């Protein structure tokens, strides 16, 4: 499905019911928007695992503007600010007063910005393997220098400088870097995900050569008022857990969970613990 909002078309998909029968009444469940990573990623990675959450929430999978199955847009609008405002426009398009948001990696940056800019529109916030400011990049470079192979250092030069020239180069990047993204690295699953995914290397270039070098939500995190769960992988190389600790310290009453056997892909490295945490939070946090 596509929503025509703010001069572009945003792809979204819906899984599960918002209202479910429980005895003599209908019970409302949270409407959970899932925001993918990147920039330039897309929603399909959520569908391989996060569909299990349909028993506690109605799931809304979203592709950011120009990403995945969303329509191409003016490349000057491929920014964090535009992604934040697109999310609110989609919420309004669907006729929802408030939404729950789960943002992973870059999606977590969009989610933070959304909860800061539209605090009354967010019922529950889940931030997964993300960072509150551009400072994550310096830490990631230091970790890569300590842990990475020469080949991993080489492919990351395109990431840091925002100079991917083709989809093949981006596929190579994810194949080479996969052992750092996941403690449970599985080459076959990485190949399957690469074949399934619709990635946009131009958006990744725009982000890493531009706005990701300057964004900083830290001074405004205290403005987030909804119940918030922050989750990090202890071995995450690109969004190290110290950045999640900052988020949890700055957001009032936020909960922090560090997964000891996970890297950036927490849902793949420790799925049972991860989904138990998400399900418990959505079940017990107020709508």
Features:
alpha/beta, two-stranded antiparallel sheet, 11 helices, 19% strand
CATH class: Alpha Beta
Radius of gyration: 18 Å
Number of strands: 10
Beta strand % = 15-25%
SSE order, as H and E?
Answer: EEEEEHEHEHEHHHHHEHEHH
C-alpha end-to-end distance? 26 Å
Principal-axis shape: globular
What would you say the CATH architecture is?
Answer: 3-Layer(aba) Sandwich
The number of distinct structural domains comes to 1
Low-confidence runs: none
Strand order of the largest sheet: 1-2-6-5-7-8-9-10
In short:
The chain is of the alpha/beta class and 287 residues long. The protein has a single domain (2-134, 216-284), classed as Alpha/Beta hydrolase fold, catalytic domain (Rossmann fold).
Summarize the topology.
Elements: E1 2-5, E2 8-15, E3 19-22, E4 25-28, E5 31-35, H1 44-47, E6 58-62, H2 80-93, E7 99-104, H3 106-117, E8 122-128, H4 136-147, H5 150-161, H6 167-181, H7 187-196, H8 201-209, E9 228-233, H9 241-250, E10 255-259, H10 266-269, H11 271-284
Parallel strand pairs: 5-6, 5-7, 7-8, 8-9, 9-10
Antiparallel strand pairs: 1-2, 2-6, 3-4
């Amino acid at each position: 499905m596509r929503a025509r909002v703010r001069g572009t078309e945003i792809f979204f998909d819906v899984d599960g019911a918002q209202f479910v029968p429980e005895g003599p009444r209908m019970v409302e469940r949270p409407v959970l928007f899932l925001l993918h990573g990147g920039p330039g990623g897309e929603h399909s990675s959520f569908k391989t695992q996060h569909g299990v959450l349909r028993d506690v929430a109605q799931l809304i999978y979203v592709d950011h503007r120009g990403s995945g199955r969303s329509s191409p847009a003016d490349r000057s609008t491929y920014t964090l600010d535009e992604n934040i405002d697109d999310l609110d426009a989609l919420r309004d398009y669907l006729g929802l007063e408030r939404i729950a948001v789960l943002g992973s990696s870059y999606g977590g940056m969009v989610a933070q910005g959304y909860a800061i800019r539209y605090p009354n529109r967010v019922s529950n916030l889940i931030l997964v393997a993300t960072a509150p400011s551009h400072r994550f990049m310096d830490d990631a470079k230091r970790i890569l220098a300590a842990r990475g192979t020469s080949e991993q250092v080489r492919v990351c030069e395109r990431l840091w400088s925002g100079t991917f020239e083709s989809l093949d180069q981006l596929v190579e990047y994810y194949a080479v870097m996969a052992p750092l993204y996941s403690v449970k690295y599985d080459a076959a699953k990485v190949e399957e995900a690469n074949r399934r995914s619709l990635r946009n290397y131009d958006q990744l270039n725009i982000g890493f050569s531009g706005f990701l070098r300057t964004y900083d939500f830290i001074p405004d995190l205290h403005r987030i008022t909804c119940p918030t769960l922050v989750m990090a992988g202890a071995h995450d190389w690109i969004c190290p857990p110290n950045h999640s600790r900052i988020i949890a310290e700055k957001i009032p009453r936020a909960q922090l969970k560090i997964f000891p056997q996970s890297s950036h892909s927490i849902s793949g490295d420790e799925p049972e613990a991860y989904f138990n945490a998400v399900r418990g939070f959505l079940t017990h946090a107020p709508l």
